[in-house]
From TrEMBL:
<dbReference type="GO" id="GO:0005886">
    <property type="term" value="C:plasma membrane"/>
</dbReference>
<dbReference type="GO" id="GO:0005524">
    <property type="term" value="F:ATP binding"/>
</dbReference>
<dbReference type="InterPro" id="IPR011009">
    <property type="entry name" value="Kinase-like_dom_sf"/>
</dbReference>
<dbReference type="Pfam" id="PF07714">
    <property type="entry name" value="PK_Tyr_Ser-Thr"/>
</dbReference>
<feature type="domain" description="Protein kinase">
    <location>
        <begin position="1"/>
        <end position="253"/>
    </location>
</feature>
<dbReference type="GO" id="GO:0004674">
    <property type="term" value="F:protein serine/threonine kinase activity"/>
</dbReference>
<dbReference type="GO" id="GO:0007166">
    <property type="term" value="P:cell surface receptor signaling pathway"/>
</dbReference>
<keyword id="KW-0547">Nucleotide-binding</keyword>
<dbReference type="InterPro" id="IPR000719">
    <property type="entry name" value="Prot_kinase_dom"/>
</dbReference>
<protein>
    <recommendedName>
        <fullName>Protein kinase domain-containing protein</fullName>
    </recommendedName>
</protein>
<keyword id="KW-0067">ATP-binding</keyword>
<dbReference type="InterPro" id="IPR001245">
    <property type="entry name" value="Ser-Thr/Tyr_kinase_cat_dom"/>
</dbReference>
<dbReference type="InterPro" id="IPR045274">
    <property type="entry name" value="WAK-like"/>
</dbReference>
C-alpha cells in the first residue's frame, strides 16, 4: 500500500475480530445494507444478474457508540483475488480519504481469511476530485449501488475495487473490460481503453436511472448499447426533463 502511494500513507486503525463481530452481531443478515458482485478481471455482468453469490457484503453496525459499516469480502472467486480486491479498495480509499464524496476508511481487520474493511457510516444508506491527485483515478463501477447518502444527502462513493489509474503522461489506460452492462461506456467495451469520459458516461446513465426510474438494459452493441440513453434522448426531445426540473424547483422555492 505504501509503494502504491509513493511512500506516503495515511494511517488507519487495525480492528480486532472481536470488535467487528460485536459491531455486526456476528455478521447478522439483518444488519446487511448492501450485497454486490465484485467482478473477476475481464468479466462483466448484466445489471439484473442475481447476487446470491455476492462477492462482498456490507453490514451496518455500531462500535463504541459510533455507527460504522463493515465490508466483508467473500464469494465464489479465489481468495487471492478477493484479497487483491480488498487491498486495492484500501489503497484508493486512503489516497482519497480527505474527499467529501468518498466514504471514509476507518481501518481494517486482518484476523479473517480475507481482510475486512471498516468504514464510516453516513447514516442514510444507499465524483471524486480527480484534479487533486497526481494521476486521475477512473472508478469503473459508478452505479446505483456504489455510494451511500450521508445525513446531509451528500453522496459517498464506497467501492473502489475496480478502480484504475491513468498512467503518467497518458489520457487513457488499456485494461480488460470490467463493469456492469448498461452502465459501461461502449467505447471502453469495444476498445478496452478506459478514460475519464468512461466514468462520465456511467454517471450520465446513473442520472437517467434516477430521472426516468428505469434500470439500464444491455440490448446490443453500437448506438443501441444502452437503451436508457435512447430513452433519455426521447425524454429530452419531449421536454419531460424540463417539466421535471420546473416541478422540482417549485417544491423548493
Amino acid at each position: 500500500m505504501i509503494a502504491s502511494s509513493n511512500g506516503k500513507c495515511n494511517p488507519i486503525r487495525r480492528f480486532s475480530a472481536d470488535e467487528t463481530l460485536r459491531a455486526t452481531n456476528n455478521f447478522n443478515p439483518l444488519h446487511t445494507t448492501q450485497k454486490s458482485k465484485l467482478l473477476p478481471w475481464s468479466h462483466t455482468i448484466k445489471v439484473d444478474e442475481p447476487i446470491d453469490d455476492a462477492h462482498y457484503t456490507m453490514y451496518m453496525g455500531s462500535l463504541d457508540d459510533r455507527p460504522i459499516i463493515v465490508k466483508e469480502f467473500e464469494g465464489t472467486i479465489m481468495e487471492d483475488e478477493l484479497r487483491s480486491f480488498a487491498i486495492h479498495d484500501i489503497v484508493i480509499k486512503t489516497q482519497m480519504s480527505n474527499h467529501m464524496n468518498v466514504l471514509k476508511l476507518l481501518g481494517c481487520c486482518l484476523e479473517f481469511r480475507v481482510l475486512l474493511l471498516v468504514l464510516e457510516n453516513p447514516i442514510h444508506g444507499v465524483v471524486n476530485d480527480k484534479g487533486a491527485l497526481s494521476r486521475p483515478i477512473i472508478h469503473r463501477d459508478i452505479r446505483h449501488g456504489s455510494f451511500f447518502w450521508d445525513h446531509y444527502l451528500v453522496p459517498k462513493f464506497c467501492n473502489f475495487s475496480l478502480s484504475i489509474k491513468i498512467p503518467p503522461n497518458l489520457l487513457h489506460a488499456d485494461d480488460d473490460v470490467n463493469g456492469i452492462f448498461g452502465y459501461l461506456d461502449p467505447n471502453y467495451v469495444i476498445s478496452g481503453s478506459v478514460t475519464e469520459k468512461s466514468d462520465v458516461y456511467s454517471f450520465v446513465v446513473l442520472l437517467l436511472v434516477f430521472f426516468i426510474g428505469k434500470k439500464p438494459d444491455n440490448v446490443g452493441w453500437g448506438t443501441k448499447f444502452c437503451s436508457i440513453i435512447e430513452n433519455g434522448k426521447a425524454h429530452i426531445q419531449n421536454e419531460r426533463f424540463s417539466k421535471f426540473q420546473r416541478s422540482s424547483s417549485a417544491r423548493y422555492d
